[in-house]
User: Fold this.
Amino acid sequence: MSDPIATEIRLRRASRMLEVSFTDGSRFELPFEYLRVHSPSAEVKGHGPGQEVLVLGKENVVITAVEPVGQYAVKLVFDDGHDTGLYTWKYLHELGRDRAAKWARYLERQARERPKP
Assistant:
């Protein structure tokens, strides 16, 4: 089975969501903060297993542009200057499909690693 391909992408600034529809009929609304902290960039993912970086303080981040990259991905430009990492259709689908679990893991890690006041 081939990976789903994005058929429509809508940037919803008021609700701070990126809405993505796929060829398999699925449709996901992905919050800007979620997309930023799960960026596929080396800055966030690191250069290998165990090198992931916990990104904090992105609650109010805004996506200012969605730039197509060939027929397989988009580059998201965030207002904090972050614009590296390609969000492939496969990765966007994964982010949508696994959103609840990925977000829960992020919140758990954030609670463990956030500096105490």
